[in-house]
């Protein structure tokens, strides 16, 4: 597609190429304005959406937003495209595709079969034509189930990542946060630490601490230290108990180089983790995090809007069959998503687009302290994501991460959302909570009274950690 024009408000707008069209059609956000690629007016944005709605989906297979010869992510997208899966919608325009996604014919089975035939640019394009309620309705129909020691993504379930970060990686401080989360029913997606000191030795020590706690009390979950993928490979070589390999990924080869990673390194890491055979319910061993704006901050965006590049990051994740993928939606800052409205829109886009591409999507509903957002905005986004069928959310003690210095959700928020929407933890984790007498027959977490059996068990766990350092 080159040189297409559209009308809106009596004005005629010309879009030079696919990059320009996608950027102009994107809902307003500060990152695209910072990059100088956003629509110059609401009229231009409407005109771009009209042109985009008439664009055949096949056009995305003949024109790349990032050159094939210069970018391994583009090559991955096009070389692995499933033409047979795409055939079901290959005759459609982007507007037709939106209408079909909202129809009854686009059920969970149809969407799962279609996922390998969709490119990131296709799902980014169709999301730009959707209202927030459309994003929720489509994502809710997508069901992506993964497993390691428990099963994530089943209908009627909401998992959570228990994030017990500590500014000094103090073992006792981390253990207290873990216990706090478990008492509130959090941790079924993963107990995952962002280390304050990113060294192999520190990662190995934290991994051994988490694994000893998990194993002693038979907790059917997975643990992860979110260290760099090369550190995880080295930790595996040293015999560390690695469940999941973590890595932040982006939508261009250059942005991934900024993270110190490429596709070959990710393949090596996945094979190393699989060789350990630690999963009992499944073999999904990778955990990826993404976020709109990462390619722009790395100066590797190629003039492409940040939401389209975010979807391209999902192509990287999809290639490695991850257990978990989450967008840390407001973490990069207001330079990319200015306020609560932009953060909420991005969170719904990311979740829906990731699900359409076949990914087990979660969201860190979060913001930095200098953004025009607050806890009420995150409450609203949390409920919207719950209605959209999000696989998991991230929770930290008191909703305040004292190591990364940003605001997220709390363990109490996960309990509240499950109660409001009738959602339950992952089945294996739920059974463990019942065995520990932490979850009642009514499906509610029991308060940890001093005389209760579960309190005694968990207090013993805390004392073990304190005595063992």
TrEMBL record:
It is found in: Bacterial microcompartment. Pathway: Amine and polyamine degradation; ethanolamine degradation. Its main location: other. Substrate binds at residues 161-163, 194, 289, 364. Its EC number is 4.3.1.7. GO terms for biological process: amino acid metabolic process; ethanolamine catabolic process. The lineage of its organism: Bacteria, Pseudomonadati, Pseudomonadota, Alphaproteobacteria, Acetobacterales. It comes from Roseomonas mucosa. The gene is eutB. The keyword Repeat does not apply. It catalyses: ethanolamine = acetaldehyde + NH4(+). Catalyzes the deamination of various vicinal amino-alcohols to oxo compounds. Allows this organism to utilize ethanolamine as the sole source of nitrogen and carbon in the presence of vitamin B12. This is Ethanolamine ammonia-lyase large subunit. GO terms for molecular function: cobalamin binding; ethanolamine ammonia-lyase activity. It comes from the Bacteria. Belongs to the EutB family. It is an enzyme of class 4 (lyase). GO terms for cellular component: cytosol; ethanolamine ammonia-lyase complex; ethanolamine degradation polyhedral organelle. Gene3D superfamilies: Aldolase class I (3.20.20.70), ethanolamine ammonia-lyase heavy chain domain like (2.30.170.30), lyase (1.10.220.70). Keywords: Bacterial microcompartment, Cobalamin, Cobalt, Lyase. Transmembrane segments: none annotated. The basic unit is a heterodimer which dimerizes to form tetramers. The heterotetramers trimerize; 6 large subunits form a core ring with 6 small subunits projecting outwards. Its cofactor is adenosylcob(III)alamin. The keyword Lyase applies. Adenosylcob(III)alamin binds at residues 195, 247, 297, 403.
């Amino acid at each position: 597609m080159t040189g297409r024009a559209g009308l809106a408000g009596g004005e005629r707008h010309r879009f030079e190429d696919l990059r320009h069209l996608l950027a102009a059609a994107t809902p307003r956000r500060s990152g695209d304005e910072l990059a100088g690629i956003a629509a110059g007016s609401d009229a231009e944005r409407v005109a771009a959406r009209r042109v985009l709605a008439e664009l055949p989906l096949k056009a995305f297979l003949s024109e790349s937003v990032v050159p094939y010869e210069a970018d391994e992510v583009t090559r991955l997208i096009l070389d692995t495209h499933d033409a047979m899966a795409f055939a079901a919608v290959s005759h459609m325009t982007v507007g037709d595709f939106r209408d079909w996604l909202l129809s009854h014919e686009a059920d969970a089975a149809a969407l799962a079969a279609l996922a390998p035939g969709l490119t990131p640019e296709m799902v980014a394009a169709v999301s730009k034509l959707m209202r927030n309620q459309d994003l929720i309705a489509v994502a809710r129909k997508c069901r992506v189930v993964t497993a390691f020691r428990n099963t994530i993504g089943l209908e009627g379930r909401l998992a959570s990542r228990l994030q017990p970060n500590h500014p000094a990686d103090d073992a006792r401080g981390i253990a207290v946060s873990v216990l706090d989360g478990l008492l509130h029913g959090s941790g079924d997606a993963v107990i995952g630490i962002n280390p304050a000191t990113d060294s192999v030795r520190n990662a190995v020590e934290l991994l051994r601490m988490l694994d000893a706690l998990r194993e002693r009390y038979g907790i059917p979950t997975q643990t992860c230290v979110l260290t760099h993928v090369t550190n995880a490979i080295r930790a595996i070589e040293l015999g560390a108990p690695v469940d999941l390999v973590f890595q932040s990924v982006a939508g261009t080869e250059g942005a991934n180089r900024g993270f110190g990673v490429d596709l070959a390194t990710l393949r090596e890491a996945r094979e190393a983790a699989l060789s350990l055979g630690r999963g009992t319910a499944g073999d999904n061993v990778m955990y990826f995090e993404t976020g709109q704006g990462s390619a722009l901050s790395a100066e590797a965006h190629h003039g492409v809007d940040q939401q389209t590049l975010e979807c391209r990051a999902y192509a990287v994740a999809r290639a490695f069959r991850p257990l978990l993928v989450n967008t840390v939606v407001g973490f990069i800052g207001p330079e990319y998503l200015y306020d609560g409205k932009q953060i909420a829109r991005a969170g719904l886009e990311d979740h829906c687009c990731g699900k359409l591409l076949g990914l087990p999507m979660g969201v860190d509903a979060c913001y930095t302290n200098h953004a025009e957002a607050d806890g009420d905005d995150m409450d609203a986004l949390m409920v919207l994501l719950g209605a959209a069928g999000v696989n998991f959310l991230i929770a930290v003690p008191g909703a305040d991460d004292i190591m990364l210095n940003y605001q997220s959700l709390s363990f109490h928020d996960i309990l509240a959302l499950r109660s409001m929407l009738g959602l339950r933890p992952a089945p294996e984790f739920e059974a463990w909570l019942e065995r520990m007498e932490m979850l009642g027959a009514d499906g509610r977490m029991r308060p940890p009274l001093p005389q209760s059996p579960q309190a005694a068990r968990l207090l013993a766990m805390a004392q073990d950690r304190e005595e063992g350092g």
